[in-house]
Amino acid sequence: MTEKIRCWLVERDYDDKGLVTLAYATEDGEYVYRRELAASAATGSKVTAAKSIEENQLERVDDEETRERYVTEVERTSQRYDPNEPI
Description:
- This is DUF7967 domain-containing protein.
- It comes from Natronobacterium texcoconense.
- The chain has one domain (about 5-80).
- The protein is globular, with a radius of gyration of 13 Å.
- It is an alpha+beta fold.
- The relative contact order is 0.28.
- About 20% of the residues lie in helices and about 40% in strands.
């Protein structure tokens, strides 16, 4: 069984096709999980501040600036919201 790691919402990007990409990052900003949804599915209680993501679903973040931004966003999100709180 793969270990699950708590990741926090750090990005929510909308495109012109009605899709939203959610990015959840680890606290150290080293790894990210991205999920693409229809914008209608990404509203309300379906998007929470944090998710437990299986380790094998995480992608390494190679860019140092992006990692630093993710760390800042994780800190901000984790201080303002409970993990299961809709965001």
